[in-house]
Amino acid sequence: MIWRGLGSFVLLTALTLGGGDSVYGTDAPAQVLRVGLDMVAASADPHRLYSVDSRNLAFHIFEPLILPDDGLGIVPWLATGWEMEGERTWVVRLRPDVRFHDGKLLSPHDVAFTFCRLDSMGNGPLAGLIAGVEQAVARDAHTLVITTRGTMPLLPHVLTLLPIIPAPDGWKGTYQPRGCAGTADGLAALSEQRFADGKVPGTGPYRLASFRSGSSADLVRTDTYWRARPHWDRVQQVILGSGVARARALVSGEVDIINQVVPESLDFLSTRPDIKVVDSKPLRILMLTVNLAGPLADVNIRRALAIAIDRAALSKRIAPGSAEPADQMAPPGIPGYTPAASIPFDQAEARRLLAQAGVQEGLRLRLITIEPFARVAEGVARYLLAIGVQLDIRYASVGDALPLLRDRDYDLFLGSRVPFTGEMGYSNWELLHTPQPEIKAGSQNDSGYSNPELDQILSQAMVEADASRRADLLQQVAVIASRDLPFIPLLRTTRRWAMHADLRFDGRVDGNTLATLITPASASTQ
Fewest CB within 10 angstroms: 9, 198, 286, 330, which? Predict the structure, then answer.
């Protein structure tokens, strides 16, 4: 059974701007970039959600101290540099010339307040980013000193995921876990509606002009940006949940660029001289989150599901040329990957495990996912049906899917993940560690999984400075996770974009579709 009632789609005619003509020339009255996305952010609050659609909006308005490059490396951004002083202290130097949209100069106090804001949100989706931070305090007008509980060698990578917001006027306090003095009023003022109304200034090249949750966002360029002005005066993001609808909108000229090009559209788009298609590296993993409180509490049933899926065949059938099998959470070459954690394909053994668990033919499970993952969900359903397990698939909008995930109102949840820090430590900390808000652990552990042995090994890995030893610890975590299976890895996929041929954009593994990186082909990116 497949439910599609929750998907939210807009008419293509709603995309048309000025008759649908693309506007690229420098002599045009306004440079408008129209972006057709599989998902538009459900919230304009940059700290509320942890997803590609959230970043696609947030990083136009707000910026991190350090920027990720497309090779999972890092480059200075709001920060000009950083270094360690001893084993537990990082010194971060800020640019002296950066201003928020309201004219206020960026200071270390804004970074400290941003940490305070994350701390005030409890075990929210970004809480793990500051899990090991003990204190953040200004040394001078342009220097921030971050003290950590243990060694945090990857702190600069972690900071790439944290959008900075301004501190209240006059606040010059210190970040400390479980409460920052003098922040109550400033934090209370940061309502979700204020972000949606564009009233919280950032340092980014755009301001939010209008926002409809999960539907559309309209961004207007700010002329006070600290870097060179981006090409586009205005950026419009609109949801087109169907891959075919996105392709049609691109070809008809109703949008200028689309993300998540689906296999059904690829051949058609690739043959058109007026369309360009680009891919990222295949680092995104599609996986099933397992609700351990329901019928899948028995690890034998979870293992039966995991080994019933032929990942190699699924990747070729669902996304030929843009997917590869994923038999564990870490991709090869990433610290944390080990052949010892691999999951085989064996349907005969899967049936034996189900029988051993006392499962009768006809077990029904509820799978929640979003429309862009429909082909994968339906492919998984076919493999599980072969061992007598039937999936009732429910397609939800992002805004509806996340509460279902957090409330554990599912048996299986199909989603995706990218190891943004270049290894598996922080992903594991958020996904696998027992939820412990006091140490910002397990902030995205929505399966109900808890294993003290894994927690202990992972805690050691998070403060291990020696890269080889850290990788060994992360491999141990991978083996335990593949044994317990709170998540079932499926595929590693590229991300794919299509655009008018007179545009230039290089695909990114993080999936971000940022207007600052999209230019006329005759120009260079900034």
Answer: 9
Buried b (16+ CB within 10 A) or exposed e, 517-526: bbbbeeeeee
- Judge if 240 and 380 occupy the same domain: no
Question: Could you read off the pLDDT of 354-367 as tens digits, one per residue?
Answer: 999 999 878 999 99
Residue 97 near residue 227 (C-beta atoms within 8 A):
no
Task: Record the pTM.
Answer: 0.84
Please say if the pLDDT value at position 72 is more than 90: no
pLDDT at 376 over 80: yes
Q: What is the mean pLDDT of residues 300-317?
A: 97
CB-based contact 360:387 (threshold 8 Å): no
DSSP annotation of 343 reads -
Residue 474 carries which side chain, given as an amino acid letter? L
Averaged pLDDT for residues 193-204: 98
Burial of 110 (0-12, 13-18, 19+ CB in 10 A): buried
Domain count, the chain: 3
Decide if 189 is inside a domain. Answer: no
Clarify whether residues 174 and 303 are in a common domain. Answer: no
What's the start-to-end Cα distance of the chain, in Å? 48
DSSP 436: B
